[in-house]
Amino acid sequence: FVLTSAGAAAPTWTQATNTNVASTIVKRDASGNFTAGTITAALTGNATTSTRSSSLSGGLIGYIPYQSAANTTAMLTAGTAGYVMTGAGGAAPVWTQATNTNVASSIVKRDASGNFTAGTVTAALTGNATTASALLANAANCAAGSFPLGVDAAGAAESCSTSITGNASTANTATNLAGGGVGQLPYQAGSGNTSMLAAGTANYILQGNGAAAPSWTNAPTISGINITNVPAASIAAGSLGSGVIASSIAVNAVYPLAVSAGTYGINITGNAGTANTATNLAAGAVGNIPYQAGSGSTVMLGSGNAGYVLTGAGAAAPTWTQATDTNVASTIVKRDAVGNFAAGIISAALNGNANTATRATNLAAGLVGYIPYQSAVNATAMLTAGTAGYVMTGAGAAAPVWTQATNTNVASSIVKRDASGNFSAGTITAALSGNATTATRATNLSAGLIGYIPYQSAANSTAMLTAGSAGFVLTGAGGAAPTWTQATDSNVANAIVKRDASGNFSAGIISATLNGNASTASNATLASNIAGGAAGNILYQSAANTTAMTAAGAAGYVLTGAGTAVPTWTQATNTNAASSIVKRDASGNFLAGTITASLTGAASLNVLKAGDTMTGALNFGGVASDITSAAGEHISLMPGGAGHVGIGLTNPDQALTVGGNISQTGIFISSGTGNNYFAGNVGIGVTAPTKKLEVASSGGSTFQVDTTNAGYVSLMIGGVEVARLKP
Fold this sequence. Notes:
Layout: E1 64-69, E2 72-76, E3 83-88, E4 91-99, E5 107-108, E6 147-151, E7 157-161, E8 185-190, E9 193-197, E10 205-209, E11 212-217, E12 245-246, H1 251-254, E13 264-265, E14 289-294, E15 297-301, E16 308-313, E17 316-324, E18 332-333, E19 371-376, E20 379-383, E21 390-395, E22 398-406, E23 414-415, E24 453-458, E25 461-465, E26 472-477, E27 480-486, E28 538-543, E29 546-550, E30 557-560, E31 568-573, E32 581-582, E33 645-647, E34 656-658, E35 682-684, E36 693-696, E37 702-706, E38 713-717, E39 720-725
Parallel strand pairs: 4-5, 12-13, 17-18, 22-23, 31-32, 33-34, 35-36
Antiparallel strand pairs: 1-2, 3-4, 6-7, 8-9, 10-11, 14-15, 16-17, 19-20, 21-22, 24-25, 26-27, 28-29, 30-31, 36-37, 37-38, 38-39
């Protein structure tokens, strides 16, 4: 957008923005903010009675203001990235590097996973540290490498030990057993005593030996009844005792000497009721967890959902519980992908402070509204909450105090604007480059209401225009008062353009070759009115810290920058004139040579990328892949009504009809309930089958099904008939 003159009347306003766009007018956002590169003003002095300011002079990017003495503010240079500011009592604060490594007297900074290393962290905890491996070695605790079997009321260890010889009294299950190697099996060597059996040789079986340890064997000595499904090749001669029930695989026929006289055979379909050990537990599904439901009774717990954890319930069945990193009452904590989790309050009773902590996320001893301040070197105190409307005033090395700000003229008080933004004062004094006696303009103009706009009604005469409706813009009217005009994002002839909520607007044809932006309009000193100008004049910087006025432009002309020279008025036109400014005609159109832009829509004869309807044929050419999709997305062809999809033909009679051959490198899946029909022969591994079904083998011979014979089907291998199938 450009600034358009309207003769002797007030010029119209260009579209203002709160973003940092070169040569645009600044407009605050909904929070009153805007972005800019550098805002520059040359001040000749400071206001002698100012006690505070929204912005402080003398600082560079990243500088931090602090009170260097009573009523005196200084600037601390910008800190290095990752450094934190540390108070130094009455001296200037300093930047200190925080680190997650164990560096003496340094400030702790968590790493990307939320962790840090330290020597000794000292605190009296009401619970147990989840990862503590030993107590601190001292007279009241255990030695390094050992652990206490109990802790008394004073926190001292009771009966230190270096090993665990018993079982946890309430543990029902364990994820892993200690002491075993790959392939080893646990067994009970005695009451409450579990041992590991060495891994067995391949194809050996485990044989029980009563109260002794089980053993691996390939020639078991089997006794008892109902022994079934024992591989005959693994039974040594004479190893079966009297009364043994031989299996259904005919042990007698293989090892007649292994079975004593008078034995008989039977199949067992259940489990042995007295088995002491088992490689696998019956009745469990994938993901089930076994637990003891009672003495000698093992039950399966259903598999848990991904991310759930198993929670013990004493003598009852354990349950699956969902762990979460969000703040949900009574849930188990699970860190997120970065190692963090949310919580309400994490409480611990501490006996003292961490030796090297110089700051904390929260400070103890403060109430709602309290403000922490440095009362001395390495000492932080709390200032009680201030009364509503009071401001905190520094007092040098002493404690800051709350001071009541007021909009009335009270000596030595802090200024506070009233609800209308005003305040009263006696004399406001500042070192000016001129004298107040010659000032003919003011920062605020009287007689206006909220939203009113001042304009030059005549030479050196300012009037007020009533507030405009939301979304309206100010339009010049020559020598008359400017008027409010509604801007629109639709294509209305001679209307002012307003972007919609997405920043877009519609138009007939937009054509322009842009030479660039106004490169020298980087900032301006703003005032409500500028002296010395006539109606319609436009101010510009003629030199450093010097503002001049251009003559009023003719109606319809726009102001064009000229680098460091005086800007000029240029006539805008809707014709294709080189180097001219574009102006729409009465229909909203204009002519141009080439228009270059990234369009979000399409020309009237093009198909939209986001979805459209096309008639006629769609031809592809000049590319290796005609139709592609993003990873994981499908390509669907959806004919309307009774339409079909044809490849290589124009009259498909099925949902998909291919005129020609189909080649595939993957697998063919037919998931429908109907039948599959092949008119010709079917070959598997054979490119030219001569029979209805022909299957190639790795040995070179083929299996063929011949249906040409009347009354039977012939099965052939390598062209030789091997069987006939008759109905």
